[in-house]
Every structure is written in structure tokens, then in C-alpha cells.
Amino acid sequence: MTNDPKRRPRGSAWAAVFLAGALIGGLSTVQIVPNFTGAAVDPVTGEVLDVADGTVTTDLSTTDGGATGKAGGDGDAAATSGGGGSGPSTTASDGGLPPARAGLECAAGKNGDETDQGVTGDTIKMATTVAESGPGASFLGQVRFAMEAVRARINRDGGICGRQLEIEYRDDGWNPQTGSQYLRNFIQEGVFAIPVAPSSEGLRIVIDSGDIDKAGIPVVGTDGMLKDQYTNAAGAAQPFVWPVAAATVSSARIMVEEAYKRGARDFSIVFEKNYRFGVEAAQAFNEHVKKLTGKPVAGYNGQNSCVDHYCGINGGGSNYSSEAANFNRGDFVALFMEPTTALNWMRDPNVDPSKQVPFGYGAAQPLFTRGFANSCGSKCHGMQVWTGFRPPIENYANDPAVKRYVEDLKRTKPDADEFNAFTEGGYVGMLLLEDALKRVGPDLTRVRLKAALDSTCLDTGLLIKGKLCYGPSSRYSNIYMQGFQIQYSGTFAGWRSGPIVKDPSF
Question: What's the CA gap between 300 and 286, in Å, rounded?
Fold first, then answer.
């Protein structure tokens, strides 16, 4: 097949991919092949050099849709702190916290009892929405297990100043209206905080409506990547939300930046237009292409229709033959989709395999799952998937913090996908919450928790690069991502480490 993006002969139908579950069941080991040849590598350490600046980086059961799962005390998740290294460290000063009430001690019976909504002398009540059914389940469905890994370890170690963490989980099917109603119910019930909030669509509505600000309820450790988790409509930092992920807009700019440095000039993108993350990605992608090349993506349109190199599709479809026939790929293709939609797109015979695209495919964090890579097969060989967290791959697999994450996760859910970037993000978000709660101490209030989070610079050891640092006017704490190439040779053979790139806007 020719590499000319304007003249692609239409091939015969690509063979249907295997179901993810079947292939995952047969996968016993993940083979890792040598480093991505497009990255600069230190000749002594073998570490990947930063493309931007050249520096070296070193069994719970899920609920049915709408059902509630609740874990309190030690619960039935027998997770303990894993070995293999020390826990996260913080360099923040507690000087920014309001003074604690006198006479309180960090111990049960001496901690002030009901210091705020959702807090008693022996529990801290929190709640969140998860996406364990519906279109988001393929990449968000296991986040609960990572959260439980941290929660159960904290409780087994005695809690926070004598208080056990209690988290209520409610599956909203990644439905915006359902999720927002559940979150509003939690606020009315008086929970202390919302941890991680894996189901981003409902959270988006509650943030944008002002309900989070009105309630003054902390939303800690989000991994939804949407812009409104970082800044409000006026461009100011969200006062009550602390994200841990690299933003969707960051990933779009990073893909363009990295491909441009390799020589790409004819950019194209396919995205889900019925979800905010797809639209945000497409806009940021187009803006950065225009900045670097002097012209927008061919076919760019405000309606987000599928025109030329710019192709918005409705996620959740089973067949994209019409859109794929109209799409003219450039010399680089970005994919911003959830896994099921991406698989159905890649199945179409009009869609070229990655190896036939001159500068390949770039894929957003939702596609960093073993299930997607397994199911896409040879057509996705060489596709570069981006994440802001260190996965258990190559040198990272032996990193103490990464090993601890995997061990904790497997104690909670032995067959969990440790490579899923959102699952790891949920774990990181809980580490942020744990650190802030400990720094607040016995006089636990929302005001003091906010002050602690706004003076945090936490090294979890799980970011691709840097620490989680926040201030009252800063929420973009994770601005580096790394690409990993899918490897497939008859069977799925893991990922190959690629370049580390900083969001060029920072």
C-alpha cells in the first residue's frame, strides 16, 4: 500500500480482532523488547532523554450498574502496604495550614471527634462515582481496586489519627446525568471529600455548575484529564479540585511536538466528538499544529465533522465505514478514543495499519490498556500510546515505587491490569489524599485539607517525571508524558519505551 496520504487504495477487509478478554486470559507474560529507536538514549545508563530539554529521567467484586459498593474499616479488601521500597515523600511545609485547635492529639478518642462534615472520632466518610459499566468501563473499570489498595493499607495501619477511611462507590456507567446526580446526593449527605472521581463525565457537570465550589468539598486526586478539573471558565485554578494526571490538552500538544521533531508535517486526528475529552483534544491538537506549521489541520471545522484529515466520530458505534472512507490520513495520525471505539475504527479495511503511516499513530492514555493492545493485534504494531505515569515496563518494572503499586494492586485484585494508566492514576490520587490527610492531623476540616493540598509538593515516584506540586493558583502538576510502542508479532509482546516529552505550553 502506498504511503501517499491522498492516494490510498482501499484494501480488503481486515480480519476481525479477537476479544480482549479471551486474549488476556491466555497471556501469561509480557515480553518487553528493546528501547524505541526514535528516542535519545544515554549510552551509559540506557535512560531515555527528554525530547524537550535533553535532560535524563530516570478480589473485590464490582457492582452492577447503579448499585452501590461500600468499603469501610478493614473491609474485605485484604490489602497491606507492599514491600520493595519506601513510600511517597513530601517536601511541603505545613506552615500554610490554619492553626489546629488546642488539645487535640493524633489518636482515637483524642482527635476531636466530629471536626467537620463526614468526620467522626473513628471514621472519615467519603464517596465517589466509578465507571464499571458502559463505554468507560474498558479503561476506567478497575480504578476502584487501586483506590482500595491504598485505603485498605491505611486502615490496616490504624487509619489517619485513629480514623478509618470509608469510601462509598457508585457505578454511573460513565453517564453524565447519572453521575452528576450521584455526586450531588453525596454532597447533600455530607461526605467529607470526593476521592479520585474515576467517572469524569458526571464530575464535569458538577464542577461546571458550581456545585463543588458552593459546597467547598475537596475533590482529590482526579485522573479525568479534562480542562475543567484544572481551571475554571475564567482561566483560574479550580479551587477545590487537585488532578494528578497530565491533561488531555497536554497529551495532544505533546503528540504534535514529538511527531514534528521526528519530521511529521501533515497531521491528522480521529476523535470521539460526543465526549468532552475528544473535543478538547482535537482543539488543542489543531492549535499546536497551526503554531508549528502555520496552518490548521486540513479539514478542521467547528462542527467536528469527519472532513479530510480532521475526523470527529460518535463513540460507541460498531461500524465506521462511512467515516473511514472519508478520512484522509496525513503522515501522522492521533487517536483520541476509548478502547471499544478505537478497536472498531482500526478494524475497518480503509484504515491503514500503523506501520504504513510514515510517522505512525499516537494514541491517548485511554488506550494504554493491555486489553486494547492485545485485541488490536498486528494493525496496531508500532502505535505509540502516551501516559503521564510510570508503568511496570522495562526499567520502571524494578523501580521501588512501581513495584509497590503493583504489589498493592495485586493484593486487592490479583488479575487486575497493572498496565492500565487510569488504574495507576487512581493509586496516585489516593497517595495524594493520604499525604494531605496525614499532614492535616487530628483537627480534620475541609479548610485545613485544602490548605494542605495547596502547599503540597509530593514525590510519589510514579510520575514519568517530577512531583505533584500545587499552589493556590496552580493545578497543572503533571506536565510530562512518555510514549510506549505497542509490540505485536503473532501475539501481543508488550510495549517498548519511547521518548519523554514535556507539554510545550509550560
Answer: 8
**This prediction's pTM:** 0.83
70 touches 143 (CB < 8 A)? no
User: 68-245+420-460 is classed in which CATH architecture?
Assistant: 3-Layer(aba) Sandwich (3.40)
Q: Where does CATH 3.40.50.2300 sit in the chain?
A: 68-245+420-460, 248-386+483-502
Q: How confident is the model at residue 244 (pLDDT cuts 50, 70, 90)?
A: very high
What's the whole-number mean pLDDT along residues 36-58? Answer: 35
Torsion of CA 323, 329, 332, 338, to 10 degrees: 10
pLDDT of residue 90: 56
Q: Which whole-number Å values give the CA distances from 208 to 199, 215, 273, 417, 447, in the listed order?
A: 15, 13, 19, 32, 21
Q: What angle do CA 288, 366, 371 make, to 5 degrees?
A: 140
Give the residues across from 265 on adjacent strands: none
User: Which three three-digit cell numbers place residue 390?
Assistant: 510510570
Closest CA relative to residue 168, chosen from 146, 183, 149: 183
Please choose, from the candidates 205, 231, 207, 227, the residue with its C-alpha nearest in 3D space to the C-alpha of residue 219: 207
**Angle of the 200-208 helix axis to the 176-189 helix axis, nearest 10:** 60
Superfamily of the domain at 248-386+483-502? Response regulator (3.40.50.2300)
Distance between CA atoms of 502 and 476, rounded to whole angstroms? 12
Phi, then psi, of 275 in degrees rounded to 5: -125, 145
Q: With bands split at pLDDT 50, 70 and 90, how would you rate the model's confidence at 96?
A: confident
- Interval 190-202 mean pLDDT: 96
| Residue type, position 301, single letter | N
What is the pLDDT averaged over residues 150-175? 97
- Give percent of the chain with pLDDT exceeding 70: 81
Span 252-274, average pLDDT: 98
Beta strands in 209-287 (DSSP E): 219-222, 241-243, 267-272
What amino acid occupies position 159?
G
